[in-house]
Amino acid sequence: MLELRADASPPLVNQIINGLRELIENQTLKPGAKVPSIRAFAATYSVSTFTVVEAYDRLVAQGLLVSRGNAGFFVNRAAVELIENQTKEPAPGKPEFNSEWYLQQIFESRQLEFKPGCGWLPNDWMFEDGLRRGMRQVASSVLELSGYGDPMGLLELRTLTAQNLQQDLRIVANPNQLMLTHGASQALDLAVRTLVRPGDVVLVDDPGYPNLMSILRFQGATLLGVPRTPNGYDLDHLERLLEHHRPTVFFTQPHLHSPTASQVMERVVYAAITDGRWRKHLKRLRQRLAEAQQQVSEHLTRLGFERFIEGDEGMYLWTRHPAIADSAALVDDALAQGIMLGPGQLFMVDSQATGWMRFNVAFSTEAALWEKLEKLLVKHGRRGQ
User: Fold this and answer.
1) pLDDT digits (tens, 9 = 90+) for 304-360
2) How far does CA 270 lie from the centroid of its chain?
3) 3-class DSSP state for residue 115?
4) Orientation angle between helical segments 49-61 and 12-25, nearest 10 degrees
5) Residue 200 main-chain phi, psi, to 5 deg
6) In a 3-state reduction of DSSP, which class is residue 215?
7) Are 346 and 103 in contact (CB under 8 A)?
């Protein structure tokens, strides 16, 4: 029997789902067992048949129940296995460092307590209120849910993007020259497929963007790195590369950017950035990043780190410690302490071992993180002696 309370939280539908799920999990309801009919369940627990229908439909969608024509609802024979697969933790492993493995770890390790090596902003730094307002605005309008929308992307958003490019960056572009993508990786993949053929020599930033390097290698390109200095590109090196190798294209990322989008999401984005509070959010975000840069720089200096450049903008700091010859050697020990690091090897064209590493300042301000890192530095410093 289930205990349902109309005056309690969560709603009755969720109480029914959670209750039946528990009965299936502990095998009070055996695989293949028939559950009460909708009317019988509603009468037994004094709830609406509509409530029971919604709960049963969701349990079917989750794979825990199956519906058999006029026979009723039954516990899916694979239900217990489904629950176990949903709840069990993956077995920990300590594979040898490589770029592909680390990129996978980045997207599978969001549960780690500390993430100074990640490439995104914390949830509470995002324009959540604006996106929620945008979703409500889009939901209240007439939506085209069928079809594929404009292949180039929502015209209104492309027009606004063109205006912002001209106003903020002095780049003149017609909306018909712009195409929206579902993120930077898709945009880069399209550019690579258009511009690069197997065997082509391609220049990239060194250190650079690991996702781009993976896309180029998959396309069969030969990558040559253009070293970055505190004052910009190493122009002499760049000139030699151009003269000796005649590269097809130079992919470079001079500024941090996160291009982002189905037509529904494009309309949500358009509604959010035309919200009067969007620019205020950006101003506050830049201020928070500057403050985080200052805090993280102080921690780095205290622990003896060397910074590549002195700056106060953006999400990242490129830094190294004299006691660490190979930052990738820290990865396993850091993961054991709940820390996701950004070892410099990940960003190097030839994946060579390096002491440099990248810190995302938005995830690097907590004192507990630096206490753990200090202990790791002491440990690895002793190994190198």
Assistant:
1) 999 988 777 889 999 999 988 888 888 878 888 889 888 988 888 887 889 999 999
2) 21
3) coil
4) 50
5) -65, 145
6) helix
7) yes
pTM score: 0.63
Q: Which pair of structure tokens corresponds to residue 252?
A: 């470079």
> Structure tokens of 140?
């209240």
- How far is the C-alpha of 56 from the C-alpha of 63, rounded, in Å? 11
Backbone angles phi, psi at 40, to 5 degrees: -65, -45
Say if residues 20 and 29 touch (Cβ distance below 8 Å). yes
Give the CA dihedral 84, 86, 87, 93, nearest 10 degrees: 100
Q: Is 106 exposed, middle or buried (0-12, 13-18, 19+ CB in 10 A)?
A: middle
Cα angle 298, 304, 307 (rounded to 5 degrees) comes to 70
Distances (CA, A) of 83 to 24, 78, 91, 107: 9, 9, 17, 23
Answer for the pair 192, 219: CB distance below 8 angstroms, yes or no. Answer: yes
- What are 322's two structure tokens? 């004299």
- Tell me the two tokens of residue 336: 């054991």
3-state DSSP assignment of residue 40: helix
